Batch of 2 targets.
Target 1
Amino acid sequence: MENILRCYGEIYDVEIERAAGCYLYDAAGHRYTDFEAGVWSAALGHSHPAVTQAICQQAGRIMHLGYRYQHAVVQEAAKAVVDLCGMPDGRAVFLSSGSEAVEFMVQMSRRIAGRNTMIYMQGTYLAAFGSAGARSPDAWHEFDWTPCAGCQRELGEDCPLLARLDFSSVAGLVFEAGSSRVMMPTMKPLACLNHKLRQHGGMVLANEITTGFGRTGRWFGYEHYGLQPDMVAMGKGMGNGYPVSAVAMTLKAARAIEGSNVRYAQSHQNDALGCAVVLKVIEAIRTENLVERAGQMGRYLSERLQRLVEQSPLFCECRGTALMLMLQLAPGVSPEQAAELHKNLFLKGYLLGYSPALHAFRLFPPLTIPQQECDDLLTALSSLSLNY
Ligand SMILES: Cc1ncc(COP(=O)(O)O)c(C=O)c1O
């Protein structure tokens, strides 16, 4: 592994040989339960047979095609995706990563509106690069929604937080229903921002890279807020580990782009292989009833984690929804202890996400995670707590 750049901390010294469902297997045959679904992507579980088969079939037919040519799978996937977003006459574009999809929404909404300012909610991640990754303060406004708790104002009433912003220069709001930090904004600030944006011609852009495809117990996180976005970015779970992302948009937004001189081109835009994967993932989520399952299993796991938090000196909070859960480490746990705990869990056979910056463990398992695995993880966490 000496030629692999280490730009995200320690890589554990265990060779993972293969993956199947919720499990990874190392070269010595040890099994690990993946409560992180890779990077929150293997929604159906790793190496899902139907997805593997779709990849093999499509790869033998056509993987990739130039901009000016058609292939039926791409249209089918676009239709499936816009339908999921409640935009049956809308349009979709397929890209490769979540960051690209978010950046695409931002660029397009700016071009359509002819404005530059973007709003994002405090606690959101957005992207690894581009304007959304950098979020320079001259173009991005962070909306701190924490003072909105208990707000009694009616929708449309004057609000000092909203009055700080000149909405006539705002292209749009990029909204995440939780994402990597698992901080779900409350309903009220979202409703107020939505109202203001609609009054001034700004757009609502939902970033569903992490929250989409069932992770929050709905197809998309924005559904919890009763919002209808103008554009929706999706990735991660939609490829089940294969790098495909997409932006779906309303017909109105699409017409504004198609009727202008805007051009956008990337090598892997609308690749047939990614689209074949998307179609198979959507079909499998439906047939395996995974959106509902994520809600049910998430409630089961989160109730038990809450009990653990009450009894354990290691953790001080469990937050999140469905299978997007965060265990906050207690302030008394040092960063070195936290890293050690994470490694111990791995050696015991449990992969959890670990964010040193947030001092927290993340639980974003495949939506297929068996109940018994949740119980076993809780036993492991309880025994670590006893030994602390
Ligand atoms: C909410 C959110 N948006 C965007 C991204 C970026 O996606 P990608 O890493 O595929 O570029 C991530 C990645 O973790 C994310 O959590």
Note: The chain has a mean pLDDT of 95.
Target 2
Amino acid sequence: MTTASLQPALQALDGPPDPDLVRIRDLIYEAAGIFHPDNKLRLLLDRCSRRMKEVQTNTLREYLECLTHQASRRGELVSLLNEITIGETCFFRNQPQLDALRQIVLPKIIEAKGETPLRCLRIWSAGCSTGEEPYTLSMLLQEEASGRLKGWAVQVLASDLNEHSLADAKTAVYGSYSTRNLTPHYRLKYFAPAGDQLQLQAQARAHVSFSRLNLSDDAHMTFMKDIDIIFCCNVLIYFDLASKRRVIQHFYNSLLPHGYLFLGHSESLYGVSEDFRLVHLPAATAYVKAARTQVGREPK
Ligand SMILES: C[S@@+](CC[C@H](N)C(=O)[O-])C[C@H]1O[C@@H](n2cnc3c(N)ncnc32)[C@H](O)[C@@H]1O
């Protein structure tokens, strides 16, 4: 495939968008909830062109056929989603949020669950990219293992759509960009040098399990149950309102009654859902699952 073969589509970006590119945009939206507005079509075209090179198609029309009619269409859609999902992340990305988790949210959840015989804490990192977020959570929980969480079983469920990111997450070897926020304490305690990179040690990996989960896959999402805390940070920014609402509804159903939801620094549920109550924590915010009032009953 030559750049020249994409010339008409590139030119069309200055006017009405290429209908084949628009159809590809719709396919991605239907499959994963990720919406490319018109001003992001150039980016989408760039990502498609990488796949077009790989599958040796010359025009967007041919590539669209590959995504729709051929026997390979499911596989190709997965490959395109691998290409377009953006995995920017790092360890300890939002320190005030993590401090609030440890100092305020965790004690509240322990208190709420303290009465139950099964002492198990389940945290879900939804849209975990290459693993830095769930592993950060795992290390924080390890720090509490002989304190607040003594005698508790801990599970960190980590999911993402991107297969390549998940493969990297399982390898757990990280470079300087990912590890730039690590304090000497965490660096020395949980990592070992691996050439010029750092390998996360078994202790912090033991409680983390990774799976491919598309947040727009309604059937699959219903399997996520009995979660205490969800982190879905910097993921829903790529979704439109309708897709966000569906995902948030699933999160509501997945959480236990006392459950918390953390979003990214610049994200909120304003205009998206009224099923959660906003909680102001020192230098961070979270959402707590609000009890639904039953139809015909006065709220208590
Ligand atoms: C910017 S990263 C955020 C990583 C991490 N949560 C953080 O805040 O550092 C966004 C991640 O969301 C994932 N993602 C995007 N759409 C998704 C979907 N429909 N289902 C599951 N994951 C998705 C991407 O693959 C990417 O890894």
Note: The domain at 3-84 is CATH 1.10.155 (Chemotaxis Receptor Methyltransferase Cher; domain 1).
